[in-house]
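Standup, Tuesday
Yesterday: got the pipeline producing structure tokens again.
Today: sanity-check two examples.
Blockers: none.

Example 1:
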Amino acid sequence: MNALNRIALLAGGALVAVAATGCSSSTKSAAAGPATSPTNASGTTAAASTSASVPNTTAGSTSAPTGGSASTPPGAGNTPPSANNGVNGGEVGGGSTTAPAANTPPPAACDNAKLNASLAPSMPGQKSSVFVIAVKNAGSTCTLGPIPYVWITKSPTDVSDETRPLIPSVDTGKKNIILSGTTLYAAIDLLPGNLASTTGNYGDLAVTANPTPDSSGKDVQDVVIPAGSAAGGAKLGVYALNPTSAVNQIQYATTAEK
């Protein structure tokens, strides 16, 4: 065999060896199969999930009210109610909530008999004409309307000259979820401007914490304010997670309730 033939044979043997090695490697990979990509019924490979479900905490409220935790209306009450339009922390339609985030149906409407309305302590620098109504849920977790229903009266037994405050425009408020034992706040300013004409002698806020078509006089709670309080162009804000946020919501009350 001459030199050229020997070189050809050696080269051919090397090629055979390489080809054999490649076949062996390919067969092993196919037999092992993908370790973590199961194939579904359609024959396509399902991609493994690498993300976890994260509770939605935007727009407003999974921070803590006094006594509860979770959130804050968008910017903790620093934006108008109409901007509270995201679902967060279990809230209904973007309102405040003291509930943790959950992708579950909203709870039943709050029973007024289990909502305790009272006057929250004044904060440093709070106007004398501003009052904050604290509504504590003494029942189970429930859905609360966006704003309480309030009449400004002389006393629980004297409704002469009673008057109603302005409220935010229709549909700007959102329903809220309130956990058992937690509190939401709504603020009212009896004299929001320097009005030349005011009427006085008011000493009571007749509050229906969760007004519904079925609400009646039995659902009204009297929140006593200093006797002789004057009122003129009063404004009421939507519920918020804390007194400061509640007071901030007053500015958006521009509509007379029909």
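Example 2:
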Amino acid sequence: MTGVALAEELLLLAYDDETGRATMPRISLDLGMAAAVLVELALAGRIAYADGNLAVTDPTPTGEPIVDGVLDRMAAEAPHSPASWVQRLRHRLRDRILGDLVDRGVVRDVEETELGFIVVHRYPMVDPTVEQDTRRRLAEALTGGPAPDERTAALATLVAAVRMEPALGLDGDDARDVEKRLAEIAGGAGFSGTVSTEDSVVRPSVSLVVLALGQAVDAALGPRR
């Protein structure tokens, strides 16, 4: 596996570049990042969805430490439902991903003290190229560009599942249409159940995982307001 991980892309979209603070509820982002790591494993052909559960089909490491840590954990445990896995994996995942981004020079860790005793951390942007590429791909997919590839379609579906459309920074007609377009991308990729996995441009094995995880995250967050 090479390139930028989906969980990293999701996190960078959710953080303000200048303040280094998250712009969305913690629970939403944490569930989304857990789902993103699981989607990463599906894209790499390491897990599959069957009989209501996610299970390891190939324990071979991907070469990405955070992703491989999840793969090892899944291989050591019995299969669980997508809803169970995102809850099991979400704790402390954000800190590990932020630490990796700091080590690679994408963001920096700013430690501050509030109210004289509360230690907080901010993560302002250092190297914007990763996030810029993510936003470019999503913008092309959302504004009538070429049909998105598997990774971009999966990322768009996760963005919708965790309800972070405002973080995309679109305006005008594009902003008004973003929720509809995200649903269209998910449908065209077979991620929403509106298109059969056989007719999807995405591998059926990946479609099943993304569909199940999207539903699990959406259910965990409750009705949209």
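Quick observation on example 2: DSSP finds nine helices and four strands in the chain. The chain has a mean pLDDT of 87.
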